[in-house]
Amino acid sequence: MSANLSTRTFRPYTGEKARIARAYDYLVLVLALFLFIGSFHLHFALTVGDWDFWVDWKDRQWWPAVTPLIGITFPAAVQAVLWTNFRLPLGATLCVACLSIGTWIARIFAYHLWNYFPINMVLPSTMLPSALVLDVVLMLSNSLTVTAIFGGSAFALLFYPSNWPIFGMFHVPVEAGNSQLTVADMFGFQYIRTGMPEYLRIIERGTLRTYGQVAAPLSAFFSALLCTLMYTLWWHIGKWFATTRYLKRI
Predict the structure, then answer these.
(1) Most buried among 25, 91, 102, 236, using CB within 10 Å?
(2) Can you list the domains of the chain with their CATH numbers?
(3) Euclidean distance between CA atoms 156 and 76, whole angstroms
C-alpha cells in the first residue's frame, strides 16, 4: 500500500521533538551568523586590506575611495534578499554591524593582545552611519534605481566625515628628526611590521595634492560614482543567489 503524499497532513512537533527542533534551528542560526561574519570580514580584509587596517595607511586619497566601494558589496546583496522577500529595511546595517564585530574581534585578540600592536594603530573604521542612510533610502523609495544613485552616493560621501572624529587626531603634524610628520606616521616608524620597508608610507603624500589640498572630497565623489554601479551589481548578485528554483519531476 502506498500513501498519497498530496493528501497527507503534516503535524507540528510537540513536546521533546519540538524542543530539539527549536534548539537545532537556533544552532543553525548562530553558525550561519558566524559564517557570515567571517566571510564578510575575509572579503573586506582581502580587498581593502592595509588601507583600512593600519592607521598610517588611512590617507586622504585611497582610504576614502576604496573602503566604501568594497564595503557596499555585501550590504547591497543582503538588502536584495531581506527587502525583496521580507520587506525588512535593515540589510546594510546588519552587514556593517557583523563586519564591525568580526573586525574588532580580530584587531583586539590577534593584533593587540597577540602581537602587541597598540589598539590605536589598528583601529577599524566605521560605516554604520552610511549603512543607516542606505537602509533609510531603500525603505522610503522602494526603488533599486533611487537607492543605487542616492543611497550609494551617500554611503561613500558619509564615510570620511563619520570617521574624521575617530582618526582626525592622528593627522596632527609633529616634528621628528628635522622632518614634519603626522602622529600616524610616527606609529608606522615606531612599530615594525612584516614586509618593511614597504609598509612605511607618508599618509599625506599623493598625486591628488596637485588639485589644491582637496584630495578627500575628490576621492569621496569618485567613490560615490563607483558605489552606484557596485550597488546595482551586487543587488542582482544577491537576488540571483537567493532565488529558489525547482526542478521538474520526471
Answers:
(1) 91
(2) 16-241 (1.20.1450.10)
(3) 13
